[in-house]
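Hey, I'm writing a tutorial for new members on how sequence and structure tokens pair up, and I'd like a real worked example in the thread rather than a made-up one. If someone can provide the structure for the chain below, I'll link this post from the tutorial.
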Amino acid sequence: MATAQAKAGRREWIGLAVLVMVTLIISMDMTVLSYALPFITADLEPTSSQLLWITDVYAFVLAGLLIPMGTLGDRIGRRRLLMIGAAVFGAASVATALSTSPGMLIGTRAVMGAAGATLMPSTMSLIRNMFHDENERRAAIGMWAAGFSAGGVIGLVAGGALLQYFSWGTVFEINVPIMLLLLILAPLLLPEFRNPAAGRLDLLSTVLAFVAVLPMIWGIKQFAEDGMTWPPVAGVLAGLLFLTVFVLRQRRLADPVIDVRLFRAPAFSAAVVMNVLANFALVGFMFFISQYLQLVLGLRPFTAGLWSLPAAGAAGIGAAVLAPMLAQRFRRAYVAAGGLLVGAAGCLVLAQVGDDSGLAMVVVGQALMTGGIAMVLTLSAELIVSTAPPERAGAAAGLSETGSQFGAALGVAILGSIGTYVYRQQLSGGAPEGVPADSWATARETLGGAVEESRTLSATAADTLVTLARAAFADELRVAALAAAGILVVTAVLAAVLLRNVGASVPGQDPSGGPAGADDTPPVDPDAAAPDGAGTGGDPATHAAQAASGGHLDTGSPVVRIGPESTTPPARPAHPVA
């Protein structure tokens, strides 16, 4: 029977602060570019195609490499991979800031995405090694999730502030001090962990994972911009084909990149589903909020970012405070469903905004939505890394982040397509008096296009065009909000059903989470695998906690765990999951 878990000390909590800062920077880099694009366009003069790649290449490469990099960390050491990624990320940030051509900027942003893919799963999987007490681990993951949720909003505010006084390159240079701090503090504060029983990395599987995720993410994003055309359809179909080949190969390998049998655990499967659908609603709808604040209400980018800060605060409270606190008292099914319903309520508030007023509703609705969803993202991350065996935590973390990217891209594509249809239907009539046909055609495409065209018209015609376009966009936002609310309600039902038995033993296992009739033989001590003997710092209590945890999901009640305990180091099992 598992013994009580050792509590984390000051070293672990300071180390967590470092990991949260890294996560914050990675999340900021997904949004900080948005305000810099006009300055980059004026300076480097990219073509429309190059501008698209400048915007998307970071997220594309990041999503494609998350799973392989998580697996690589399990093999070579998670702290080592984190430090390699930090060095590359910092150097690539400097190169990006100094880019002198669109091609150079695209290349350096791609390198940043590759480095970011080493950082994200490493931070989450290290938390799994640093915090052995379940309540502390849930709180730590909550802080991690809060940093990631807040980073996107902080990126908007920081980008708007920096661009008022400095060149566009500064939005990337702010990464460098954090990466330098990580390189200094990581050897002092973070444990090392690698799986001593891992075989060699299968390069073909790594390539298959990349070519499966990348074209699907690209195709889904293109649906939002170009509609149902052949290139994005071909991208999604190609991704699905490679994904099928990837899964079939993983089932045959003794040392797979992703152990597909992890999905046999209800907690793991439910967490992945919640992660994808919650990000679908959250990120997909944020696309509308930023445009509403700037193009409908006429706020400047920096001001719009400031009004989004309450949402960042709500995300922090939901992820770092409410999720850990409520999960100690109530079943995860209730907490997850409750958070999703709060998010749905926020979407219903957002569905009440008007075309000339609605700032208060946007602030309240966005705060409810992000706060509720942040609770769910914390629970899903905790379930994913806690349910997976410790030696697979890096790969599981990579899968979690890939699910986030996939859900976000899917949300932007589907909600964006719904919104575009509504907007064009509202402007389906003939051009108003005084508005040329070509200006009306441009205005029917996007609200931004309508605002730009209005600057070439007379005052009366411009006012008419902008008024109609803003009213159409408000309708678009309201329909998208209702669609997002529906997605969150459906996800709440799925969470309640799929997580209803979390806390009960897996069939064929005893209540302690191990195989029926087996003793509590501890797994390989992770510290023994650390190249420098780091890990827990030699603390006997922590060593005991590691031996006791053994990959269990310690719920305070019966435990959910996948497969049998590890055996002695020389006997590497053919497969870690029963």
